[in-house]
Design brief:
mainly alpha; Four Helix Bundle (Hemerythrin (Met), subunit A); 5 helices; about 75% helix
């Protein structure tokens, strides 16, 4: 899925699941995306630290954040990371899984519209 498609999926989900107006979506989306990026950074740090317990927890938290935005495919990827931590035979796959999820998340967070503060 491309970044623009992810952004539209998020907007559609926020409108239908939370009954947010376009204006409200514009107001809250930057904070949602910042939080998503913070969760992703924590996941990457846990991977770098080789802390499988914290990596599984971070995967779980990230899965929830993605579901809150209606991104079920990406939430499945985060869930796979969470599950992989509990299966020693699949632990070597973690770096590739985390990298793939990071690439997908970066495709729509880098280009997220930001409201300009009025002075």
């Amino acid at each position: 899925m491309k970044g623009q498609t992810y952004r539209q999926t998020i907007r559609d989900h926020l409108a239908s699941a939370y009954l947010l107006t376009e204006e409200k979506i514009d107001a809250v989306l930057p904070a949602f995306l910042d939080t998503l990026l913070a969760h992703m950074l924590r996941l990457e740090k846990n991977l770098a630290d080789n802390d499988l317990e914290q990596l599984a927890k971070s995967g779980h938290v990230l899965k929830g954040a993605l579901l809150n935005l209606g991104l079920h495919e990406l939430a499945d990827m985060a869930h796979a990371i969470e599950q992989c931590c509990a299966t020693p035979a699949t632990v070597p796959e973690l770096p590739q899984q985390v990298s793939r999820l990071r690439t997908e998340i970066a495709s729509f967070t880098r280009q997220a519209p930001r409201r300009t503060e009025q002075r």
